[in-house]
Amino acid sequence: MINLLDFDRKSLEDFFLGIGEKPFRATQLLKWMHQAGVDDFDRMSNFSKALRGYLKAHCTITVPEIVVAQQAADGTRKWLLQMGCGNRVETVFIPEDNRGTLCVSSQVGCSLACSFCSTARQGFNRNLSTAEIIGQLRVAQRELGEQTKVTNVVMMGMGEPLLNFNNVVAAMQLMLDDFAYGLSKRRVTVSTSGIVPAMYRLTEVCDVSLAVSLHAANDELRDVLVPINKKYPLRELLAACRDNVADAPRRKITFEYVMLDGVNDSGADARVLVRLLRDVPSKINLIPFNPFPGTEYRCSPMPVIERFRTVLHNAGMVTTIRRTRGEDIDAACGQLVGKVHDKSRRHLRLQKQGGT
Ligand code: SAH
After folding, report:
1. Cα(222)–Cα(207) distance, rounded to whole angstroms?
2. Across residues 83-102, what is the average pLDDT?
3. pLDDT reported for residue 350
4. Most exposed among 11, 16, 196, 242, judged by the fewest C-beta atoms under 10 Å?
5. If you take atom 1 of ligand 1, which residue's CA is the nearest one?
6. Catalytic pick from 13, 21, 90, 160?
7. Are residues 53 and 182 in the same domain?
8. 312 lines ligand 1 (CB under 6 A)
9. 8 C-beta closer than 6 A to ligand 1
10. Among 163, 283, 333, which residue has the most ligand 1 atoms within 8 Å of its CB, making it the best to mutate?
């Protein structure tokens, strides 16, 4: 069976051409699936009986099932979704006064090993399909009902989105498509730990906002916190960032910087950061570290975070401190764990090294 949620507009047009239908059927189907939330082919009244019959025989429209739904005191909602074979991922909705942001996962687990992230501890199983990625948005919107709209999507859940390039890009095309979710390119953000070649490709094929998990302003420390830095060091990373904004004069890259007590939070660190980002149009988002069982890191105290921000601010850099949301249901950054059948055996390696 073909899951029609796996297709963006282009591949849906190809699909319809392949079965002898006109490409405009793609638009009609996108509207049924993503705007009307209809998954029963019999209700697709502008399709011929023959086409409905074909679709019923060969296709499905299947979204992930909810295993657990939780709501935090601050209104943040989290869904644990079944992804087959015992694998589960988490999706988080963060309501704010004038917007509602959905934090979407891209992989079951993560193959990277950022030392301060709990998803990393779980190891890696597989990439999510396009249907499983866009399905998170579809399920969330269904659960939120008519009154509450998802206005922003951040690819900041479990996984490294740019290591699941094709599926993530197809899902984001659907988020941007006027006949699917119609979100503006400023409201769809992909966050990466810095997979440099994929960043260049992304700039070419998909016009969304880019966030980069920087976390350190020198290679020596970044090698430890974000080990992919050994492969793609800061110089290469920042060149890819400059390339991303080169043709978009008003666009800025968001740099995420997790505040780790005594690790990367000194005044000197802030000044090196200012110098590093001097020639990249940027916004800096300081993320208070969210602890999880077994970690040795601690969050920098608030006055330290504020001092750090002041240094950046005085150097003319747009800097915000990310408000921690959904903490009481473990929905904050770096706390998403789902359930991963680890194929990479990371948890065994970590055990041997004396980790959790
Ligand atoms: N793999 C992608 C997408 C994850 S985004 C990336 O690295 O960008 C989630 C953000 O939360 C990343 O910036 C990540 O570094 C950060 N993060 C991870 N663990 C965290 C923790 N325990 N506390 C605060 N932020 C964390």
Report:
1. 27
2. 93
3. 62
4. 242
5. 160
6. 90
7. no
8. no
9. no
10. 333
Do 93 and 210 reside in the same domain of the chain?
Answer: yes
CA of 334 to the centre of ligand 1 (A): 5
Strand positions, DSSP E, the chain: 2-3, 59-60, 65-71, 77-82, 88-95, 100-103, 107-109, 124-127, 152-155, 188-192, 209-213, 253-259, 282-288, 318-321
Catalytic site residue 90? yes
Whole-number Å distance between alpha carbons of 1 and 185: 32
- At 55 the pLDDT is 98
> Is 286 a residue whose pLDDT tops 80?
yes
Residue bearing the CA closest to ligand 1, atom 8:
192
The predicted model gives 147-159 an average pLDDT of 96
Residue 328's pLDDT band, with cuts at 50, 70 and 90, is: confident
Please give the average per-residue pLDDT across 145-149, as a whole number: 92
Ligand 1 and 213: CB distance under 6 A = yes
Distance of CA 95 from the midpoint of ligand 1 (Å): 19
Taking 80 as the threshold, does the pLDDT of residue 355 lie above it? no
Cβ contacts of 187 within 8 Å, gap of 6 or more: 151, 152, 153, 209
Q: Tell me how many domains the chain contains.
A: 2
Q: CATH number, domain at 335? A: 3.20.20.70
Give me the pLDDT at residue 82, please.
95
Q: What is the pTM of this model?
A: 0.95
Q: Given the CA of residue 211, which atom of ligand 1 is nearest to it?
A: 8
Active site residue 333: yes
Pick the catalytic residue: 103, 117, 299, 333? 333
Average pLDDT, the chain: 94
SS3 call for 194: coil
188, 136: one domain: yes
87: left (phi over 0), alpha (psi -120 to 50) or beta: beta
Identify the pLDDT of residue 356: 39
**pLDDT at residue 345 is higher than 80:** no
| Token pair in block for residue 49 | 């009986």
**Could you tell me what percent of the chain has a pLDDT over 70?**
97
Mutate to test the pocket of ligand 1, among 229, 287, 290 (most ligand atoms within 8 A of CB): 287
Q: How far apart are CA 285 and CA 209, in angstroms?
A: 14
Q: Clarify whether residues 25 and 135 are in a common domain.
A: no
